[in-house]
Amino acid sequence: MQGMALVVEHSDAPVILQSDSSEALLCMSTDALQRSAYGHLVLEIKCLSGNREFVPQKFSRSQNRVVDRLANYSRTERATAVWLRSVPPCIENVWPLDCNYMNL
After folding, report:
1. What crossing angle do the helices spanning 22-29 and 39-49 adopt, rounded to 10°?
2. b/e per residue 9-43 (b: at least 16 CB within 10 A)
3. Which of 20, 43, 45, 78 is 20 to 30 A off residue 26, Cα-Cα?
4. How many angstroms separate the Cα of 64 from the Cα of each of 29, 38, 72, 101?
5. 3-state class of 41 per DSSP?
6. How far, in Å, are 21, 45, 52 from residue 104 at the CA level?
7. Spatial separation of the C-alpha atoms in residues 76 and 70, rounded to whole Å
8. H helix runs in 11-64, sequence order
9. Quick one: DSSP state of residue 14?
């Protein structure tokens, strides 16, 4: 959710959500899980994105090593962080290899 808030604050571009979870992407694209334990988070993220175009993309973990490493960092260090205009040490050797370009 913090990532979505940053995107909305710093960019007018469409919101591109890449995930290895088909269920998470489905929740963001539909009203699924609205009454679940995570429904409030999904609703908050949808409210943050407002009327922006939403582009869900399904990737496996092997296709998106950067996200996998960042998620692992967050879990093991129990930390959240934002690196604007820089690359965190935990991904500096894989981020150039993981660029997933898309045309809108």
Report:
1. 60
2. eeeeeebebbebeeebbebbeeeebeeeeeeeebe
3. 78
4. 21, 24, 13, 12
5. helix
6. 22, 22, 13
7. 10
8. 22-29, 39-49
9. P
Number of structural domains found in the chain: 2
Same domain, 87 and 68: yes
Summarize pLDDT for 42-88 with one digit per residue, the tens. 888 788 877 788 888 887 777 778 878 888 888 898 877 777 778 88
Asked if residue 61 lies in contact with residue 22, where contact means CB atoms within 8 angstroms, the answer is: no
| Residues 13 and 49 occupy one common structural domain | yes
Print the domain residue range for 27.
1-59
Q: Report the length, in residues, of the chain.
A: 104
Which tokens belong to 54? 């939403």
Query: Quick count: other Cβ atoms within 10 Å of Cβ 101?
Result: 4
Of residues 75, 85, 82, the one with CA closest to residue 4:
82
Helices (H), 1-104: 2-10, 22-29, 39-49, 65-77
